[in-house]
Specification:
Layout lengths: L1 E3 L2 E3 L3 H11 L5 H19 L5 E7 L4 E7 L3 E7 L3 H10 L8 E5 L6 E6 L9 E5 L2 E2 L3 H13 L6 E9 H10 L4 E8 L1 E2 L5 E2 L5 H6 L5
Parallel strand pairs: 2-11, 5-6, 5-8, 8-10, 9-10, 10-11
Antiparallel strand pairs: 1-2, 3-4, 6-7, 12-13
Helix pairs in contact: 1-2, 2-3
Cofactor: Mg(2+)
Protein name: uracil phosphoribosyltransferase
Pathway: Pyrimidine metabolism; UMP biosynthesis via salvage pathway; UMP from uracil: step 1/1
Length: 215
């Protein structure tokens, strides 16, 4: 695992093996979903390392003990629709976390993000938000989602961006826009095509998750 300027890139043999499987064109949707889930679980565990804990006094069948619980209220904000592939894994870690869906798509010609849906209450009932966006290509969608969360009232210091894969350029764009943002990513690819696709990448994550690839 390597960390630089609030960006942490995970490095683990299990993650590398799952990523390799995700990259394969022949990987079916079921296995693709399972791979995204497994990597998201790794990301969620690592991104939770610095969450504040609060202690309490409890009792086991044998005797008293000092336990702890996570103090901040956690919210999950998946970017539709690909972010939904990460949500179940995070709910395994935070079963009571509310899930607020953010609808953003990238316009094919301009590659600019377009917001079309938000499920955010008027006042944030959470302290920390995990923003789930499995693929950061140009960075535009992630930045648009961050704008929505900041406008909602969540400070950037309380947002953690979790992504399975990012391009170097996209990651740099997000970092430059929000240098204080925590970013947790499984791997970073070197190239971004003229069409705004990460290379070698994973392909269209949403289509591969939900088996809607065009033949």
């Amino acid at each position: 695992m390597s960390t630089s300027n609030k960006v942490t890139v995970l490095s683990h043999p299990l993650i590398n093996a799952r990523l390799s499987k995700l990259r394969e064109t022949s990987t079916p949707a079921k296995e693709f979903r399972e791979g995204i889930h497994d990597i998201s679980l790794f990301l969620g565990i690592e991104a939770s390392r610095n969450l504040e804990e609060e202690s309490y006094e409890g009792q086991t069948p044998i005797g008293p003990f000092t336990g702890s619980f996570i103090k901040p209220k956690i919210g999950l904000t998946p970017v539709l629709r690909a972010g939904m592939g990460m949500t179940d894994a995070l709910l395994e870690l935070f079963p009571s976390a509310p899930v607020y869906h953010l609808g953003i798509f990238r316009e094919k010609t301009t590659l600019q993000p377009v917001e079309y849906y938000s499920k955010l209450p008027s006042v944030p009932p959470v302290d920390t938000v995990f923003l789930l966006d499995p693929l950061v290509a140009t960075g535009g969608t992630a930045i648009a989602a961050l704008h929505m969360l900041l406008d909602w009232g969540i400070p950037v210091s309380k947002i953690k961006l979790l992504c399975v894969l990012a391009s170097q350029d996209g990651l740099k764009t997000v970092q430059e826009a929000y240098p204080d943002l925590e970013i947790w990513v499984a791997t970073v690819d070197p190239k971004l095509t003229a069409n705004g696709l990460v290379s070698p990448g994973l392909g269209d994550t949403g289509d591969r998750l939900y088996n809607t690839l065009k033949e």
